[in-house]
Amino acid sequence: MAVSMRDLDPAFQGAGQKGGMEIWRIENFRPVPVPKSSYGKFFTGDSYIILKTTALKSGAFRHDIHYWLGKDTSQDEAGTAAIKTVELDAALGGRAVQYREVQGHEMEKFLSYFKPCIIPLEGGAASGFRHPDVEEYQNRLYECKGKHVVHVKEVSFARSSLNHDDIFILDTKSKIFQFNGSNSSIQERAKALEVVQYIKDTYHDGKCEIAVIEDGRLMADAETGEFWSFFGGFAPLPRKAATKDDKSSNSLSVKLLSIEKGQAVPVHADSLTRELLQTNKCYLLDCGIEVFVWMGRNTSLDERKTASTAAEDLVCGPNRPKAHIIRVIEGFETVMFRSKFEAWPQTTEVTVSEDGRGKVAALLKRQGVNVRGLLKAAPPKEEPQPYIDCTGNLQVWRVNGNEKTLIPSSEQTKFYSGDCYIFQYTYPGEDKEEYLVGTWFGKHSVEEERNAAISFASKMVESLKSQPVQAHIFEGKEPIQFFSIFQSFIVLRGGASYGYKNFIAEKEIPDDTYTEDALALFRVQGSGPDNMQAIQVETVASSLTSSYCYILQNGSTVFTWSGGLTTPEDQELVERQLDLIKPNVQPKPQKEGAESEQFWDLLGGKREYPSQKLGKDTENDPHLFSCTFQANDLKVTEIFNFSQDDLMTEDIFILDSHSEIFVWIGQQVGPKGRMQALTIGEKFLQHDFLLEKLSQETPIFVVMEGSEPPFFTRFFTWDSAKSTMHGNSFQRKLALVKNGVTPMMDKPKRRTPVSYGGRSSVPDKSQRSRSMSVSPDRVRVRGRSPAFSALAAKFENPNRNLSTPPPVVRKLYPKSVTPDSAKLAQRSAAMAALTASFERSQENGIPRHRKVSLEIPKSKPVVVSQQNNSTSMSSRIEALTIQEDVKEGEAEDEEGLPIFPYELLKVTSSDPVTEIDVTKRETYLSLQEFQEKFGMTKDAFYKLPKWKQNKLKMALELF
């Protein structure tokens, strides 16, 4: 599209260069910026242009342009708004979606920008914003419609305006009445209360009484009598008369029209297909309540303006119901538009370059306008975070036919692709234990065992009174929080369950189940020690990728292979995974391009392989849907610009984050709805409402209201108090509006988690610490730091059943309490004694960097606390080493701490300092040395997530 500066209104220069909203009002046929203080105030006599700019994770911007027409605006101003909207789109590069909004018939997306509502004011720019005299407060009656956003319309102050189906708000000088029609829903009543709050705050300075009137309540109620007195007394309400706007226009057939010389000409075709749309033309798609204007990439600005005018003429025709006009550009069509066509291609062959946007940017730059944002920016690199406490307790079961078998803790991170697994993860929440119960399906698992796994997991959730989050996970689609709670995860080929063995026997398929002596190739991936995986892949050269590291084993022969695009961090993960897959074996390192013949021979010869990493879903903007599920039919409604307040306790909602699907169940949802939650998630993926082509194996999480995990609440500005309130949505909102009080449910007390293996599942943080240390001379140390391994081996009970979690080790000091000097001295003395024991063990010939056998005779244990005499010494030691006694960010504010050199503070120091808090070694570094070692200030360090702090301390041997 050719663009010249004469086509661009000066008012639009620099628009859309940052996220947020910008509004212009049409005055004398020109757009004039509206002050931010007046956003949300619309006058019935005016026309407005609203630009909503959304900053995407890729660094680019998405633009939505709306032009709003007041009911009293002139035809000329409305036409100007339509034309100027096309010009604004041109200024933004010709990619924005454009919407026509008419007062009283606005789209929900537009209303969501101005929550809770829009109440247009009388008057306009032409009349000098004259509106009725406000010296004497005037009673007004408003009609409210909507379950998710509220359409507010002022109606005649008369009894005849009331009906049984809608909500009405009567605003008087001293009191606001909400009249709930008997046929209105709880959700509609709750949303209308948000309008009551808005009127109270806006027109009464937050000081007036609130009264709720229920349709059908007799005059015996004082407030009901007062309400009806404004209408001359009570009388039965008439039936609501059907209006022209209420008539459904869905029965109208969808028609495609081509714009030829300014006229809309029907396009005759048996069915709507993408091939009908030519890039050098504009089209109208008439869907009754929506009219789409499709503009080809090779059309001129004048042609687009002509198409917009034709659409205006179409919707303003006689006997035409109110319709929305939505204008889309070729290559940037909305989901709603694409859904009208049969089999819209996933990718359209359109030359969509930055040329048009670049020309606009160059023109604006010459005028001194900042054009940042008009061109696509480089996506910021963000490391994914699990948003879950990774110090909890994990139990895993393998499904064997119609049974489940508890897996020993030493083997619970090794899964077979032919099996199904159930896991229960228990971790500390804000005020109670939180649970995550899930199923994992291997790629080659059998259907019978998948169904059995779901049944077992559902029963576990029911036995915990539906508190746990329930997860539905497939191999190859695991979310970050799954990998983080397993930390070191290994997927092996084959299977160990009865179902898999029976399946391959029936099909006469060779059993390729992994064995330690077999030929096997593992791809190593992950972001760090607390999130790393080894995935067994086919043992051929084409399985290699330059962006990964690999482990190749054949009996006692082990090779490690580093792709040319890997980093030192990737290569460190290989060393750590070797400690789990092939401990005590020295590998033969191979670098891409310098492999030995023996390496290629084991892979069956050298072949071509890709260089880039495997495709991975990117995290798009999340979408929230309200859903109903009846007779196996799922219907959804998208909620735009959603917040926590949109989650109604009577309903079921779906949060689509693209990489995961969350099904949120309100407390007021019945048992049937809860049982169908997983099916609802599966149906959502099947329907593909957003045309995202999501995999049917996308992870699904079922979340109960009141037990929302952090990896769900991160998509909201979350207040946990709101999800634990009493009553339905209306009762909760009414309590807030009338009293400003949040009625709370009794907080559940922290209780001992249920164990399904007959063993205690109370977590010991020491069990969950799986950090690993790699010595410089490549003799690997598995699981813990060398100093800790020596200490643990000296006091560990070699006969302990590894499948049973160790007894509870309570924190020596609560996280929010600072230990007094006596306790600190006791703790320091204990650590000094343990350190001395370790030094003596080294003098007796134990190498610092060699794996220590559990066969070493036990020494007499050192008493740490009489309360924990029965606890194994290794649990006590590790509890001391990872204790979180000080709040995050607290250490940098402490004063008077002694300063020690880095060499004396390391866990491997030959001369360690005593009388310090060993869990906060870094706080004893000088500011200069802290900056040198960590590359940041203490203040910046303590603002990092806890897991990232530990990762840095581990690398510096301070943890």
Overview of this protein structure:
Helix 3 (186-203) links the parallel strand 9 and strand 10. It is globular, with a radius of gyration of 33 Å. By secondary structure, it is an alpha+beta fold. Helix content is 25%, strand content 21%. The chain is built from 24 helices and 32 strands. The strands form four sheets. The chain has a ten-stranded mixed β-sheet with strand order 2-1-3-4-5-15-14-13-11-12, with helices on one face. A ten-stranded mixed β-sheet has the order 17-16-19-20-21-32-31-30-28-29. Strands 18-22-24-23-25-26-27 form a seven-stranded mixed β-sheet. The model is unreliable at 1-5, 128-134, 348-356, 371-380, 745-832 and 834-895 (pLDDT under 50).
List keywords for this structure.
959 residues, alpha+beta, 10-stranded mixed sheet, 24 helices, 21% strand, disordered N terminus
Distance between the termini: 60 Å
The radius of gyration is 33 Å
Strand numbers in spatial order across the main sheet:
2-1-3-4-5-15-14-13-11-12
| Largest sheet geometry | 10 strands, mixed
Structural class: alpha+beta
Number of strands: 32
User: Helicity, in percent?
Assistant: 10-25%
Low-confidence stretches are 1-5, 128-134, 348-356, 371-380, 745-832, 834-895
Shape: globular
- State which percent range the strand residues make up: 15-25%
In DSSP terms, counting alpha (H) and pi (I) runs of 4 or more, how many helices? 24
